[in-house]
Design goal:
This protein is α+β, with helices and mostly antiparallel strands. 29% of the residues lie in helices and 28% in strands.
Length: 429
């Protein structure tokens, strides 16, 4: 393979590289061209596809490995590739380690060191557990290739193995200094603490998988409405398209943009983004239904015969969406809404709690709880504020429609800047 650092003006390149970025741009004459950044482990190089419609230019995406046929030219003193032919590379045409930074340490040596620590674990079950993973050749190959993070630490091939081994060594040292520690358990935990990083998992991918459990059980598609923002709406739609909606029926997936409201200070004064524009902020979780209706999706709800809406937060990948037990319990209760909760593990767990305020269901945020409230107990010894809110709700659509025009009390949410220490409010309707 010819590495990028060896490129010289006049060279002809025919090899595989990682396409780091891909954009369509316009020349001064308004003609479209492709602008790429190609990468290998030695660096990056700018590349241009001046004739996008030529026969040798095939379909590919950013972060694909691509086979490139190109000439090396100079532009403003820097190497640039004039691409004549390009296609997505086939598996087996490239070795990923040639395109990414690699650990400076010897990978087989680190593998041996890690497996040797397994032999020192006295607990039979923990030793079998560790051995079952780290003595598995296929798993160890994947584990030894992956990075420990994208950029924070050990962001290179072999980084996950290097990081894990260093943590194991540290735990081994502390267990010798403090005999009270359970060395077997500590070392096993160190080996497994980043075990999941060998596989990439998108949040939406997991949420759709959760929803698919229900669709498979019922034999019908459950409509999915995704609330986006003005900033990420386009990117979110493209992301779903790029991943073929993660196997879900695209006719049952709709997107709508969360509406914005002006931000104000403590005194109710409007905050300015610039001299001629207001600072805006999303209207909060409470504005989701208004945003849904204003996007015209009430017709889609009616056409699909939706009677109940299950609202959930996108950042909890463990959510059971349209959980039959939760749905059934809410409907059987005769209530028009329901909230799924979990018991708090301790009084000061950083999670909002379901409660009654003036006899009506409400939520008290964890930062609003006084020590007395947090530790208050019921007669049976359970916490009075022990029902942790996980942002998973059921709402009757007819009832929501009846009250959609009613003006709700303002809920004030504030944020603080580390730089200015000024607080801004947003009103949630």
């Amino acid at each position: 393979m010819r590495f990028i650092e060896t490129f010289r003006e006049g060279n002809h390149i025919s090899d595989v590289y990682l396409c780091k970025t891909k954009q369509i741009a316009l020349t001064k004459n308004g003609k479209e061209y492709g602008s790429l950044v190609l990468q290998d482990k030695t660096g990056t190089v700018d590349a241009k596809i001046w004739e996008l419609n030529s026969p040798g230019i095939n379909e590919f995406c950013a972060l694909d490995y691509v086979y490139v046929d190109a000439d090396v030219t100079l532009f403003q003193g820097q190497n640039q590739l004039n691409v004549k032919r390009i296609r997505k590379a086939d598996e087996g045409e490239y070795h990923p380690a040639d395109y990414l930074p690699v650990t400076t340490k010897n990978i087989p040596t680190m593998q041996h060191e890690l497996t040797q620590y397994i032999t020192t674990i006295k607990n039979e079950y923990l030793r079998k557990l560790a051995s079952g993973y780290f003595n598995d050749l296929e798993f160890m190959k994947a584990f030894s290739f992956h990075s420990a993070a994208k950029s924070v630490h050990h962001g290179f091939v072999g980084g996950l193995l290097e990081h894990t081994l260093s943590v194991v060594k540290m735990c081994d040292y502390f267990s010798k200094q403090y005999p009270v520690l359970n060395r077997d358990l500590l070392l096993t935990a160190a080996m497994f603490h980043d075990i999941g990083k060998t596989k990439e998992l998108y949040i939406f991918e997991q949420l759709v998988a959760n929803l698919m459990k229900v669709t498979n059980q019922t034999g019908t598609w459950v409509p999915l409405y995704v609330m986006t923002s003005e900033i990420n709406d386009g990117m979110t739609r493209e992301f779903f398209e790029e991943h073929d909606y993660f196997g879900y029926n695209k006719d049952y997936v709709k997107f709508f943009v969360q509406e914005m409201v002006p931000a104000v200070d403590f005194d109710g004064n409007l905050l300015m983004k610039s001299e001629d524009s207001l600072a805006m902020s999303p209207n909060g979780n409470g504005g989701w239904f208004k945003s849904l209706i204003n996007a015209g999706l009430d017709k889609d709800l009616k056409d699909k015969g939706v009677e109940w809406l299950n609202v959930f937060a996108v950042d909890n990948v463990l959510q059971q969406i349209a959980d039959p037990v939760f749905v059934g319990a809410t409907i059987e209760s005769g209530c028009v809404s329901g909230s799924k909760v979990v018991r708090k593990c301790d009084p000061y767990e950083r999670v909002g709690a379901m409660c009654l305020e003036n006899g009506k269901p409400s939520i008290v945020e964890y930062y609003e709880l006084t020590p007395e409230m947090a530790e208050a107990k019921n007669e049976n010894g359970s916490l009075q504020y022990g029902f942790g809110v996980i942002l998973n709700y059921m709402f009757n659509l007819d009832r929501l429609t009846e009250i959609k025009s009613k003006r709700l009390p303002l809920h004030i949410a504030w944020t603080s800047s580390w730089l200015s220490q000024k607080r801004a409010f947003r009103f949630m309707w």
